[in-house]
Amino acid sequence: MRVMVGSHEGAGSNEVAVDFLLSDDQKKLQDSIAEFARERIAPQAEARDREARFPVELFQELGRMGVTAIPFGPEWGGLGLGVFDAALALEEIARADQSLAVSAMVSMATGLTLSRFGSKALKERYLPDIVAGRRICAIAGTEPNAGSDTAGFKTTARRAANNGWVLNGEKAFITNSGTEITSFALVLAVTSPAAAERKSFTLFAVPAKAPGFATGEPYRKMGWRSSDTAELYLDNLHVPHDALLGEEGKGFRYILDGMNAERILVASDSLGDARWFTEKAVAYAGQRVIFGKPIGANQGVQFPIAKAHVNIEPPISCAPRRPGCSTRASLRPRGQHGQVPGPR
Fold first, then answer.
1. Distance between CA atoms of 293 and 138, rounded to whole angstroms?
2. How far apart are CA 27 and CA 320, in angstroms?
3. Catalytic residue among 61, 92, 262, 279
4. Is 262 a known active-site residue?
5. 10-residue block means of pLDDT along the chain (344 residues)?
6. Per residue in 69-102, is it b (16+ CB within 10 Å) or e — as a string?
7. Across the strands, what pairs with 176?
8. What residues does each domain of the chain span?
9. Is 138-252 a CATH 2.40.110.10 domain?
10. What is the pTM for the complete model shown?
């Protein structure tokens, strides 16, 4: 299906054709990931969840398949496909293991932010391992008492005498921060003077092995238990000046920009999870027999399952089915639309 979208003021040069069908290559990608998820990811997903164990080997296997390389440019070993292609892959992974999907999603989104705003030196230092899936990365914005309320942020970065920076503070709910293959975290820190009327934020690429970088015990969560999530502590952590991403004072802007891709990827994770639950419900409705017939023969069971299935469909149409859906123009509205129905 192809539709024309554009200005409501009438037809003209602002209209573009948007394709809502998968290309042959996208179908092959989806099918190959679905097969891998059924055979390699799903069988031990429940055990990993019980043990709250991040599957390093399985994540690196995704890298060898090229999954972690999907949205990155060829210059870093990537496949040069769009964010939507990455979303297709994550959706199939989430159908088998939501924890693995969310860990991969965070690493992808963080890597994309680095690839967009990092210096050439930073990209050369970190991206090859992230793109290849040998290592994983985190983004550290949220704090114990502040998330979207940036006025409450307390993590600071102060200039050091040797032209570097010293970071101090605590971050909360940081995915991928404490795995054995964590490479770095993008840390958002206040860099404005304490007396400044308005806080400004800067983003730093902080290596996980740096002295002063420490994580707490993983959170005991209700779900996503095999996805590593912990508090992150920065204690007089020194980084050189070239660890700074982009320009000083623009870190929060970079975080928001990165969310355009992240919204689509998060929605795809949630969609895969919703499909898993719906498929389980359908299977159980056919197996559970009461008074001589499956409970799925009753409308009281059929209707909620049908409604759940219908609710899954809108997010599928929230991003155009075409390669290269990764520009800022295409991501911003689509990312916001996908965020609404996707997580429900």
1. 50
2. 14
3. 262
4. yes
5. 48 54 89 96 94 96 97 96 94 96 97 97 98 98 87 92 93 96 98 81 97 95 93 97 96 93 90 90 95 94 91 61 43 46 49
6. bbbbeeebbbbbbbbbbbbbbbbbbbbbbbbbbb
7. none
8. 16-135, 138-252, 275-339
9. yes
10. 0.84
